[in-house]
Amino acid sequence: MKKILIALLVVAVAVASCIALIGCKDEEKKDEFIVATNAAFPPFEYKEGNKFVGVDMELAQKIADKLGKTLVVKDMEFDSVILSVASGESHVGMAGMTITDKRKETVDFCNPYYNASQMLIVPENDTTFDGLTTAAQIEEKLKSLSGVTIGVQRGTTGNYYVKGDADWGFDGFANVTCKEYDNGGLAVKDIQNGQCNYVVIDEMPAKQIVETSNIVNSSKKVKVISVPLTEEEYAFAVAKGNTELKNQINSIMEELKKDGTFQAILDKYFAAE
Ligand code: GLN
């Protein structure tokens, strides 16, 4: 009898501590501000050692501070960021993410905080686009080329721009092969290795990746064609219907703009420009 009682007691204690643990875990999650990103997109998000740095990452820290929460950054492939937010695994996607109608079907966007565009990266000695100054001229040129492979980062606007996608409003380029990479750095490396001809990616990452790639492989230099191919706006993404968090982030961003913090962060990361 005594043994049974002890056994019952042990089970009861075990169950109680399990419940307490689960409770704690939930509590913990409540105190966290979980950000989904793809830290291969300098100067918006990248890693210095183990540390997440870049414009979005600094803003993430400021927003977490103002919300009184602990910042947790989840680094993943870019095309997983939206899913992570939509499923509730993360609170917000902060990934240099362009607002698009297609994405609006899955997530809600906060107010835009940055204007961006796609740009072309080519080998330094490539003269194909010399003298072209508008998106229309470059697109006409791209349409006239054949046997050309353009690298992009999977799931990005650049990907749909090159491949062509009615949902995204892009015609694509019939004779161009679109090669998808995990990130822009790998795509540019493939230009240097002769595995693809050009890369299409967002302007600021294009400039930063070119700079780094030219240091890493200075015998196969690349350059950016400084003609904006698209007009895009970046915004942070929250789960559909999470108006509370969206409004909180919008008003914190307003504060950060008013008190100069936002500009200071941009200046810090765009100083090389
Ligand atoms: N701005 C692009 C997009 O939203 C690329 C973002 C990224 O690669 N992090 O698709």
Task: Give the strand tally.
Answer: 14
What overall form do the CA principal axes indicate? globular
| SSE arrangement, N to C | HEEEHEHEHEEEHEHEHEHEEEHH
CA(first)-CA(last) distance: 79 Å
Compounds present? glutamine
Largest sheet strand order: 4-1-5-14-6
* Radius of gyration, whole Å: 23 Å
Largest sheet: 5 strands, mixed
Individual helix count:
10
- Beta-strand content: 15-25%
Structural class: alpha/beta
Which stretches are poorly predicted, pLDDT < 50 over at least 5 residues? none
Portion of residues within helices: 40-55%
Tell me, rounded to a whole number, the average pLDDT: 92
Provide the descriptors you would attach to this structure in a database record.
273 residues; alpha/beta; 5-stranded mixed β-sheet; 10 helices; 14 strands; binds glutamine; Solute-binding_3/MltF_N; Transporter substrate-binding domain-containing protein
Provide an overview of this structure:
This protein has helices at 2-30, 55-67, 78-86, 101-104, 135-144, 157-163, 184-192, 203-216, 243-258, 261-270; strands at residues 32-37, 46-48, 51-53, 70-75, 92-93, 107-109, 114-116, 118-123, 148-153, 176-181, 198-202, 222-225, 232-234, 237-239. The protein has 273 residues and is α/β, with parallel strands linked by helices. It has a five-stranded mixed β-sheet, with helices on both faces. The chain has a five-stranded mixed β-sheet with strand order 10-9-11-8-12, with helices on both faces. A two-stranded antiparallel ribbon has the order 2-3. Helix 6 (157-163) links the parallel strand 9 and strand 10. The protein is globular and about 80 Å long. Residues 38, 41, 78, 95-98, 153, 156-157, 202 line the site of glutamine. The site of glutamine has 11 residues, from loops.
